[in-house]
């Protein structure tokens, strides 16, 4: 990275005009899988890139939390995109998206066990060795938690980043959602995370359902509580970059402008310049993942995906209500993905 990213926004076609108009944007984040190598970079995106706005590819299908190493073709595509857009870094998730040959349709949490941590360290190190720029990892929001965790979330993320040298992509909306849904203090968790590895920050809106679960939807206004959490972060460490994620139900651009302004204020972007990580630090102990570790991870993840997608019996120890809520969300996301891929029908 050559300097702080500043204020940013997720690149979505309905927001392209706003992104071009805002002269204070330092970066845009693109969903990596939406930019295959056989298609040119969209002209509006290329135009703002040439103006000096940096482009950060954000992967959603690498599945670093799967038992085996990342798919070589997906990893190569992410590396090529980083080179095409001259990216300062790329990002992905601490999550898995497929198991037992079945696609879940969205990001799923990994079990916080020693076996899983060793597998993740190996997979992240494998990916970083094949990427031309630093990698930032984002802990996800999850309605369901694995039973029998051996490591708490703060220690799990910290050890993963320390041992791989990866950077942190902190989503304060995810942090708020997890704290609300699982009953802990988000500020206390903020203080457990390795903020010295911070690369940039996500901010997004969400909503609560009738059962009281909070969904990080990326389709609602950013709540004041999330902006307050961003302010808490900025009071602890200068923020190198912060961006708004909005994926659907786009309001008038004036509303988006106001949210970006509020995010900039909460992140204190006009204040002290944030220190910028130049790349991975010297990594810690390498992975000791064994075939048995990978087998245990595979068995657990396959059972979970089978319950969520194929109607199999819930794995032991999981909260059935939260499994059902997660399955409902996954079904909706798969339907939305299919709808996006279908050609628009025109009347005769």
C-alpha termini separation: 52 Å
Shape: globular
Unreliably modeled segments: none
The total strand number stands at: 12
Largest sheet: 8 strands, parallel
Can you give the helix content as a percent range? 25-40%
What gyration radius follows from the Cα positions, in whole Å?
A: 19 Å
Tally the structural domains: 1
Beta-strand residue fraction: 15-25%
Overall mean pLDDT? 92
CATH class equals Alpha Beta
Backbone structural class: alpha/beta
Task: Tell me which oligomeric state these chains represent.
Answer: single chain
Order of helices and strands: EHEHEHEEEHEHEHHEEEHEHHH
Structural commentary:
This protein is α/β, with parallel strands linked by helices and 348 residues long. It is built from eleven helices and twelve strands. It has helices at residues 16-21, 43-50, 72-84, 114-128, 153-164, 172-182, 186-190, 224-236, 253-266, 291-309, 320-341; strands spanning 6-10, 25-31, 54-58, 90-94, 96-99, 102-108, 135-139, 167-171, 198-204, 207-208, 214-215, 241-245. The mean pLDDT is 92.
The gist of it:
40% of the residues lie in helices and 17% in strands. The protein is α/β, with parallel strands linked by helices and 348 residues long.
